[in-house]
Each structure stands twice: as structure tokens, then as C-alpha cells.
Amino acid sequence: MSEPDHLVGDNLKKGIILKALSGFYYVEDLESKEMIQCRSRGLFRKQKITPLVGDEVEFLVESDGNGYVMEIGPRKNELVRPPIANVDLALVVFSVKEPDFSPKLLDRFLAVIEMNRIEPVIVLTKMDLLSEEEKQSIEPTINYYREIGYEVIETSSKRQFGLESISDLIKDRIVVICGQSGVGKSSLLNSIDHTLDIQVNEISKALGRGKHTTRHVELHKLSEGLIADTPGFSSLDLDQLEPIDLSQCFIEFYERSEQCKFRGCLHENEPRCAVKSAVEAGEIIPTRYENYLQFLTEIKTRKPKY
User: Fold this and answer.
1) Residue 223, annotated ligand binder?
2) Is 125 known to sit in a ligand binding site?
3) Which fold has domain 243-301?
4) How far is residue 123's CA from residue 188's CA, in Å, rounded to a whole number?
5) Average pLDDT, stretch 167-183?
6) 178 among the known binding-site residues?
7) Which ranges carry the EngC GTPase domain (predicted)?
8) Are 266 and 296 in contact (CB under 8 A)?
9) What is the pLDDT of residue 206?
């Protein structure tokens, strides 16, 4: 279809992009709740603007029923991976077994989510797979995240517990569900709402990781909210973070930073650092601080982009 060379103000409708696929944007009309297949204006390409899932938009419907995204509303945030805008909440999903729980990867996710000013909730899956001894071993770490202010929900899709708490969180919000492959994200969503039928692949026992089953970003209606199921991945870039930003993304570090001797303290080698003192006093767990130092080194030594 050819792009309209005119704007008819009375015909503009308001909607939200629920899916992006192969150059098309599927927009839900906020008034009629009808889904309209749209393309974006050529002007956006010239301005290097890409419509994102989650965008509030104004669109024009042509006589053939197809549409054009004409205006994109202001974004309160946007993620690069997955490419999605206006996220209210991030469900950070980690399994406690198969694959094993990884505090380092969790801290990486939390840092990026905190940078984007999105509220994170930690969701632990496959709790039914833990022996009593294994549960006691992981409990202090789980409790630490609760103590520093994160909500942690323990779940089992197989035994159907913890799901109601997630449903309550999703209501009236745009939510992204993220985490490494094979942790049970799709199983979790399908357990909350069986009509979703999101594709699920069993974790590859030979490789010890899951396969990428999700091919595009899409917002699904779930528990009176919208949730995006996104491709699993085992790493997360810290490209958008500067050293001083990282210290603000570790919430218990940020709370103590005012007590440091130096303003802009990176909690590395500086004297009279409140964060290092808290680590020595056992108030901050060593693994969390070690992960922070590794991320800091990664940011400091990355090659500049040209």
C-alpha cells in the first residue's frame, strides 16, 4: 500500500502497538479494541525513529482497512533488547535449578532494569525441583534480595503455586518478562493463562541451555494487563552504563553512597567508602559486591564506539 500524502485530523485514531513483525505494526484501537495492521510513515525512517511495541500512537486507517502510524507519543522508557517502550514492570525470571540459579546474571539484569527506571520483581521458578538441603543453601541469598527492597516471588508452574501473586502485579500495567533461556518464562505465562499457548521448548540437556523459541516481540493480554514474552539470552550488555551510573543501579550501594568520603565514589579503591565498610560488616553480601566490581571493570575497559 502507498503512503498517504495527507493527514486528515478527524480520521486519526489513538492506539497502542501490541506487535511488531516484518515491518508491520499491529495497533489496537483504544476505542474499538480492533487490531489494525499498520506500516510506519517514511518520515520516521528519515528521522531514524522506529515505532516500538508498547508505543502509544495516533494512526490513520485507509479505505482498504490497513493503517499508517502517523504520530508516536512520548516514551517514559525504552529497552533495546527486547525493543519495547513504556514498560511499567519487569518480571526477572530465574530458575533455582536446571539451569542453576545465577546471582551474577541476576545482578546484571537488575542493573540494566534499574538504569531504565523500571520496577523489577524477581520471580524464581522450578522451586519444586529443590531438595530441602538445596533450599536451605539458597535461602540466605534469596532473603538478601528481599532485605534490600526487591519483591521476590517463589513459583512452580508444575505445582501451580506463586502464580496468583504474579497475576495481581500485572493488572493495568505493561510488563516485560525477562531472564535466561530455559528458566520457564513461557511455561509460567501459560500456567497463568492457558489460552496464551506460547511456544515452549524443553531445556536442552546436552547443551545445558534452552533454545530461542520466541521470534518477535508481542504484548499479550494477561490478567487485565499487557505482558511481553521475549527471547531468552544468557548475557546482557552494559553498553549504556557509565561507571558512576552502575553504582546507582545497585540499590543498596546507592543508599550508602552519601556516607562515602568522596562524592562520586565508585566503591573500588577509594578510602572511607561506606559501601566497602558495609561489605566488611556483612551488611552487603560479598558476591553482590564482587559482581559489581566485575561489571565496573567491564564498563571501564570496553572499547569506545565510533
Assistant:
1) no
2) yes
3) Ribonucleotide Reductase Protein R1; domain 1 (1.10.40)
4) 10
5) 85
6) no
7) 85-234
8) yes
9) 37
249 annotated as a binding-site residue: no
Q: Residue 246 pLDDT more than 80?
A: yes
8 in a known ligand binding site: no
Contact of 58 with 70, CB cutoff 8 Å: yes
Determine whether the annotation assigns residue 260 to a binding site: yes
Radius of gyration for the alpha carbons in the chain, expressed in angstroms and rounded: 22
Residue 13, marked binder: no
> Is there a binding annotation on residue 76?
no
pLDDT tens sequence across 58-102 = 999 988 888 999 999 999 998 877 789 999 999 999 999 888 899
Q: Is 22 known to sit in a ligand binding site?
A: no
Separation in Å, CA 56 to CA 53, 62, 75, 95, 149:
9, 19, 8, 33, 31
Is 187 labelled a binding residue? yes
On whether 210 is known to bind a ligand per the annotation, the reply is no
- What is the β-pairing status of strands 84-85 and 56-61? unpaired
pLDDT in tens, 283-300: 999 999 999 999 999 999
Q: What is the C-alpha separation between 148 and 153, in angstroms, rounded?
A: 15
Alpha-carbon distances of 52 from 22, 48, 217, 219, rounded to whole Å: 13, 13, 9, 11
Ligand-binding site membership of 225 (annotated): no
Q: How far is the CA of 36 from the CAs of 18, 63, 293, in angstroms?
A: 10, 12, 48
Class of domain 9-74: mainly beta
Architecture label for domain 79-229 = 3-Layer(aba) Sandwich (3.40)
Domain positions in the chain: 9-74, 79-229, 243-301
Helices H / strands E in the chain, number of each: 9, 13
